[in-house]
Amino acid sequence: MRTYILAIAAFLFGGFSVQAQLAKPAAAVPKRPLGVPVDAKHFNGKWYRVYVGEVKSWSGAKERALAVGGQLACAADAPTHAFLAELASNRTLWIGGTRRAEALWYWVNGAQFSFTAWGPGQPDATRGEDWLVLHGGRWHDNNGRGQIPIVGFIAEWPK
After folding, report:
1. Sign of CA dihedral 66, 72, 77, 78
2. What is the mean pLDDT of residues 21-26?
3. pTM higher than the cut 0.90
4. Which of 70, 40, 48, 46 lies closest to 154, judged by CA?
5. Most CB atoms closer than 10 Å: which of 78, 81, 97, 125?
6. Residue 109 in contact with residue 120, Cβ under 8 Å?
7. Domains of the chain: residue spans and CATH
8. Rounded CA gap, 83 and 120, in Å?
């Protein structure tokens, strides 16, 4: 009853739709698993955190993510990619994609890419660009030695 009265008051004085507020209750965030940082963000059953300034190489980012109990983030679908792009906040960050010898791209969890969000002209197959960065909301193959500074990485913790 109290929620209903507050919603009516907010509608009358705040100008928002009561129907929209009542139709979409806040999703409950599950209990954070042991070892997941307190500032990690929850999305679609997993936890994610951006680490800035900690490592410069993809292999260093991968090792650091493992050291904190996670792995480099995998954007296996469009909603996860959109979430990671928002989390990156226009920073260039390592994520968990790598190109193997057969020139196919895989996530650090072993899954082959089935969804992609490549930037224009990417992957450009420049020699040695076998790792994935999120740059400007899109994917770029990278070797860590280019013009664009890579400022960190995104780690994920499984369900």
Report:
1. positive
2. 50
3. no
4. 48
5. 97
6. no
7. 1-28 (no CATH), 31-157 (3.10.100.10)
8. 20
Q: What are the pLDDT digits (tens) for 97-110?
A: 999 877 899 999 99
Amino acid, single-letter form, for residue 3: T
- Any idea of the CA torsion for 43, 77, 52, 97, to the nearest 10 degrees? 140
User: Which residue do the tokens 């050291």 mark?
Assistant: 67
Question: HEC string of 79-99?
Answer: HHHHHHHHHHCCCCEEEEEEE
Residue 21 has pLDDT above 50, yes or no: no
Q: What is the spatial distance between Cα 150 and Cα 51, in angstroms, rounded to a whole number?
A: 11
Contact 109, 70 (CB under 8 A): no
How many residues are recorded in the chain? 159
